[in-house]
């Protein structure tokens, strides 16, 4: 009996070990920024786990972008660079295991660093958007707006009945966050929500990291989709004032 019990315990721990190792390996198989991104971005500096882009002028508004699952933060550097040139300080965090949902509260680090910023807008791509909504739900008093990039709010993060400014930017040809997903999620958005569809856009081109499994092909260039995202976020924030 004791021998059987020891054998059973060994089997259980072996299965758990294999599962943990397998999960870790899966999280490290990331989507890296492509060469096209490095042709568009002047410089990328990482400090204390953040890629931060500061404007050359005085600023009072900040933007935090949570990457999608297993997507390297550098893939969103073009968005950050261009938004910083429009007067925002922009930060992209790195995450343990490359999953934003594990460290959803990391936004507080950047907010603590830039105390001169009076208005913070947070959002993310795909699973990063879900993590950003979780953070916002728990910290509404220090967030001025929430945005989703190829992502959406859920029943557990229900903002209906609130006046929180929200933005959903989604791609017409997104194979992972579909048009049906976006439509069905609208009931969980606030009264101050705006929705913007990128015609011909897909899921992967919310960053610049190449094709993604399960996605559809875009019929517009990645830079065109990126510029529409930048214009959409900037116009949305400007409309809140």
UniProtKB/TrEMBL annotation:
Keywords: Hydrolase, Membrane, Transmembrane, Transmembrane helix. It comes from the Bacteria. InterPro entries: AB_hydrolase_5, AB_hydrolase_fold. The chain crosses the membrane at residues 7-26. The keyword Hydrolase applies. GO terms for molecular function: hydrolase activity. It holds the Pfam family Abhydrolase_5. Residues 62-227 form the Alpha/beta hydrolase fold-5 domain. This is Alpha/beta hydrolase. The lineage of its organism: Bacteria, Bacillati, Bacillota, Bacilli, Bacillales.
């Amino acid at each position: 009996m004791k021998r059987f019990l020891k054998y059973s315990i060994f089997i259980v721990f072996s299965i758990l070990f294999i599962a943990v190792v397998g999960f870790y390996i899966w999280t490290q198989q990331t989507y890296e920024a492509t060469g096209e991104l490095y042709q568009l971005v002047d410089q990328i500096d990482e400090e204390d786990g953040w890629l931060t882009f500061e404007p050359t002028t005085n600023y009072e508004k900040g933007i935090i972008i949570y990457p999608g699952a297993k997507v390297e933060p550098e893939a969103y550097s073009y968005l950050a660079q261009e938004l910083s040139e429009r007067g925002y300080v922009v930060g992209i965090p790195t995450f343990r295991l490359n999953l934003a949902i594990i460290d959803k509260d990391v936004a507080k680090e950047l907010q603590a660093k830039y105390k001169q910023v009076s208005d913070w807008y947070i959002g993310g791509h795909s699973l990063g958007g879900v993590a950003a909504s979780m953070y916002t739900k728990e910290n509404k008093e220090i967030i001025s707006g929430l945005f989703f990039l190829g992502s959406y709010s859920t029943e557990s993060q229900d903002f209906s009945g609130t006046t929180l400014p929200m933005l959903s930017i989604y791609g017409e040809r997104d194979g992972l966050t579909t048009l049906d997903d976006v439509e069905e999620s609208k009931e969980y958005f606030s009264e101050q929500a705006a929705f913007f569809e990128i015609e011909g856009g897909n899921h992967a081109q919310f960053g610049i990291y190449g094709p993604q499994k399960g996605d559809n092909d875009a019929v517009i260039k990645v830079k065109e989709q990126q510029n529409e995202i930048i214009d959409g976020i900037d116009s949305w924030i400007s409309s809140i004032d």
